[in-house]
Amino acid sequence: EVQLVESGGGSVQSGGSLRLSCAASGSTASNYCMGWIRQTPGKEREGVAFIDRAGGTRYPDSVKGRFTISRDNAKNTLYLQMDNLKDEDTAMYFCAAKFYYCPGSVQDFVYWGQGTQVTVSS
Question: What b-and-e string marks burial along 18-33, b requiring 16 or more CB atoms within 10 Å of the CB?
């Protein structure tokens, strides 16, 4: 079982950048499909970046070209580089992991961190 702890959230102006980190422990992150999933009150969870065990990545159109997911296997840590942030990127961002069908549905992710808040203002 993997434990996940996010960090790096904060407040930033529109057009700015943030890098989120997700430290994994208890198991090797590269053995999982990993994802960054965000949620705002009253809205469904939205997957914004995924990386599979082979290192392949996927993004929805809403963040493609602005967000980059990466994984440092030596540090057992997942990252999300967010550039050109927009107001609509404001959300709680969660790091999550699962074994199969990457990325599949965000509802199928088994292991979750506690989340880190990202607030973007104009």
Answer: bebbbbbeeeebbebb
pLDDT tens readout for residues 73-121: 999 999 999 999 999 999 999 999 999 889 999 999 999 999 999 999 9
Of the candidates 119, 108, 99, 121, which has an alpha carbon nearest to the alpha carbon of residue 37?
108
Q: Residue written as tokens 């199928």?
A: 108
Question: Which residues are CB-contacts of 50 (< 8 A; sequence separation ≥ 6)?
Answer: 33, 34, 35, 36, 57, 58, 59, 69, 102, 103
- Based on C-alpha coordinates, what's the Rg of the chain? 13
